[in-house]
């Protein structure tokens, strides 16, 4: 899949600045999942799914129902939308939609949400706290999008936060199959299906200071680092015991700044950014480096990157996977880099040369044992 986009121009003028519409961003786009398969996925216990219904028989006219679902007939043929999160982790074909967007950092990626809307279906005017690319699949949908602006929020029902419908609009267009709409975090938008429609939303997370500080502190406690404590040997007694002086406040801030600026903090942040959204599935039996050569000799074998796995490189030489720091010697740096660049699957013949040394085989065994990659045999008949 090729995204028809001038990436340099997009990053300079649109990314996190303003919404933009990319007509035929994916030319001759073919749906990666059918509405029937999406509906079936929303019946699974482990899937994160919900239906947003407009013109519902409620005081507010809105209703949100969370899956798993048993049937859909009761919702009728209009005015509702089915949304399923992280479909890329369930359907490999949907996962392929991530590759064209890898000009952005892997660690920013959240998931691919897929929605199916009946005629007049939508989730109402709202803002998201993440950046999103919305790819139109089958059907047509009208989108109204605004720049960031002061807004009044309301909550017509539980789990649904909307904004006033009269926001200032800069994009008001109908999207057809293959069109791509980019919406920065904080920009109000509202999409209404003109006919039964599929949409694919590639979301990029934008964590807040509070989220990062909380996660960093939790990780520091778990790893027993950043243990330096507050001291004030030169303090002078305040006029009252309940007072916090400017000197004390500055000392606490300096302690926190020192912690965030430390090498330990860099390591913790890299661990956090490499964590997968959902738990990775580790092999039942650990793989050893000595087993790798034989695995690479299987003619029908492939190595697959697990859905949701993040293999990141820090400072050009240190690698992290799912919160773990990898031991990658210099002789295996090229092998680890190839794994980090990899998306989806690769045939073993493409990897034999790279993983021909004991050091590189040890790295491959480690990422398999962490659940980030796995071997599989294509047993399809020739």
Automatic annotation (TrEMBL):
The keyword RNA-binding does not apply. Keywords: Dioxygenase, Iron, Metal-binding, Oxidoreductase. Residues 93-221 form the JmjC domain. InterPro entries: JmjC_dom, NO66-like, ROXA-like_wH. It comes from the Bacteria. The keyword Oxidoreductase applies. Gene3D superfamilies: 50S ribosomal protein L16 arginine hydroxylase, Chain A, Domain 2 (3.40.366.30), Cupin (2.60.120.650). Its cofactor is Fe(2+). GO terms for molecular function: 2-oxoglutarate-dependent dioxygenase activity; metal ion binding. This is Cupin. It comes from Idiomarina zobellii. The lineage of its organism: Bacteria, Pseudomonadati, Pseudomonadota, Gammaproteobacteria, Alteromonadales.
